[in-house]
Amino acid sequence: MAADSDAGNTDSAPVRPDKVLFLSGDLMFATRVGAAAEAAGMQFQMSGNLPADPARDVRVVILDLATRSSIVQGFGAKVADACPNAMTIAYGPHVQVGPLESAKAEKLDHVMTRGQFDRQIAGFLQSLAN
Questions:
Q1: Is 7 a member of any domain?
Q2: Residues 6+ apart with CB under 8 A from 127
Q3: Long-range Cβ contact pairs of 30-33 (< 8 A, separation 24 or more)
Q4: For 45, how many CA atoms within 13 A lie in the half-sphere containing its CB?
Q5: Could you tell me the pTM of the whole model?
Q6: Percent of the chain's residues with pLDDT above 90
Q7: What is the mean pLDDT of the chain?
Q8: With bands split at pLDDT 50, 70 and 90, how would you rate the model's confidence at 43?
Q9: Is residue 8 in a domain?
Q10: Domain-located, residue 96
């Protein structure tokens, strides 16, 4: 009987981070990123913000600087708290130098232009899945 009472308790079970959290307001581009995540065998979630409670299943947090540049300040520390197992990617239009520089100042794992991100995301997610 004791085993049954613990059946729903997953606190001690190791969590394999396999989710891509996409912070963007761009629904059209989200389908492309979601397809890349699914092709790599990862879950995909689009949101406007980081989760309120720690999400240990998140492997990658992607920040769209074109639609979410207002949250870039302190973003690295916020991700470390909200998604402790995640790496960060920020991308934005090459003509919007300010947000790209702000993301670089936050020491995020990867900061790139939208074109670079678009070309690299499928291969990058696939490499994480292997």
A1: no
A2: none
A3: 32/118, 32/121, 33/62, 33/121
A4: 16
A5: 0.86
A6: 78
A7: 89
A8: very high
A9: no
A10: yes
Q: How far apart are CA 103 and CA 74, in angstroms?
A: 9
pLDDT exceeds 80 at position 102 = yes
Domain of residue 67 covers 15-129
Residue 33 pLDDT more than 50? yes
Q: Are 82 and 51 in contact (CB under 8 A)?
A: yes
- Total domain count for the chain? 1
What gap in Å lies between CA 32 and CA 15, rounded to an integer?
26
Q: In this predicted structure, what is the pLDDT of residue 130?
A: 78
Residue 3 within any structural domain of the chain: no
**pLDDT classification of 129: cutoffs 50, 70, 90:** confident
CATH of the domain at 82: 3.40.50.2300
